[in-house]
Specification:
By secondary structure, the chain is mainly α. It is built from one helix and no strands. The protein has one domain.
Length: 67
């Protein structure tokens, strides 16, 4: 056929290099999402700990110097 050479072009979606680039980009994006979720989870835990300490200080359970 006249269009058999298209799969050899660098922009063709079935070109192995293009498939690999897309896969690597997806993996990188997934890792970035995981890191973001992990950071948000850690911040939420730290805020809960800080709020708990504030409540304990307000109730007089621990001295104010522990904040």
């Amino acid at each position: 056929m006249g269009l058999d050479y298209l799969h050899k072009k660098n922009w063709h979606p079935e070109n192995f290099d293009n498939i690999e680039k897309v896969w690597m980009a997806e993996q990188k994006e997934d890792e970035a999402i995981k890191l973001k979720e992990e950071r948000l989870k850690k911040l939420k835990e730290e805020k809960q700990i800080e709020d708990l300490k504030r409540q304990q200080i307000e109730q007089g359970i621990i001295p104010a110097s522990n904040l």
